[in-house]
Amino acid sequence: MDSFDDLVRAVRSCTPEQKQRIFQEIRDSILIHDLERTFGVRAEVILEAISRANDLTQRGIRGVIAETVFVLDVLPTATGWQSDPPVGDLSYDACLHKDGRRVRIQVKTQRRKAGQPMVQRGSYVVEVQRTRTGQKDGESTRPYRFGEFDLLAVCMWASTKDWHSFLYVPAAQLLPDERDKRIIKTFQPVPSYEDVDGDLWAKSLTTALDRVTRT
């Protein structure tokens, strides 16, 4: 072959089975991700470990995936807003600012149960609480309280199979806990991504940010 481009074209013309064989031939000489070096193990082993993990562990990983997709792919679509990445263990996963206004965003995933989207009282559900348990001044620190974040972003992958499908609602519009109105209720109803009417929940991050800053 005369050039690298010719080689690339030749590989692209191969069958899926041939491409897999080529990949296996060169796999030992390349890294798919720096995490392979950090963990000292191939990416295939990391993925197999995730596959073998229990549902609770996989739920946490799905949450991290949703948060990463949101920060890398969705945040940049908010035209005119600047990102102010959180530092430390805070009650929000992302923060944007514009014209002196800050919007703190908490990212959650649509809840699943037995491998299917969880339905409660005829509605999809999102679980709005911290993963870790704890106590402070005799009270549980796991629930979120109103005022800890401004906007809830829910990844609807469980029902859409698309990591980029998010629904947004102002935190002030979430349901309070019946026992303590300062606390955000753990299980919140979420509309279907396809049927959302836009009155309370929004598909557009920009629209959601505008609603929060108008309140």
CATH architecture of the largest domain: 3-Layer(aba) Sandwich
CATH topology of the largest domain: Trna Endonuclease, Chain: A, domain 1
> Treating each run of at least 4 consecutive H or I residues as one helix, how many helices?
7
Assign an overall shape. globular
Q: What number is the mean pLDDT? A: 92
Kindly report the spatial arrangement of strands forming the biggest sheet. 1-2-3-10-11
Structural class: alpha+beta
Provide a descriptive summary of the structure in words.
With 215 residues, the protein is α+β, with helices and mostly antiparallel strands. It has two domains: 15-52, no CATH class; 55-214, Trna Endonuclease, Chain: A, domain 1, CATH 3.40.1350. The chain is 32% helix and 21% strand. The chain contains seven helices and twelve strands. The protein has helices at residues 4-12, 16-26, 35-39, 43-52, 55-74, 157-160, 205-214; strands at 82-83, 94-98, 101-109, 112-113, 116-117, 119-120, 123-127, 135-136, 139-140, 151-155, 166-170, 187-190. The strands form four sheets. The protein has a five-stranded mixed sheet. The chain is globular and about 70 Å long. The N and C termini lie far apart (64 Å). The mean pLDDT is 92.
Key terms for this structure?
7 helices; 215 residues; 3-stranded antiparallel sheet; Trna Endonuclease, Chain: A, domain 1; alpha+beta
Task: Give a nutshell description of this structure.
With 215 residues, the chain is an alpha+beta fold.
Give the arrangement of secondary structure elements.
Elements: H1 4-12, H2 16-26, H3 35-39, H4 43-52, H5 55-74, E1 82-83, E2 94-98, E3 101-109, E4 112-113, E5 116-117, E6 119-120, E7 123-127, E8 135-136, E9 139-140, E10 151-155, H6 157-160, E11 166-170, E12 187-190, H7 205-214
Parallel strand pairs: 3-10
Antiparallel strand pairs: 1-2, 2-3, 4-5, 6-7, 7-12, 8-9, 10-11
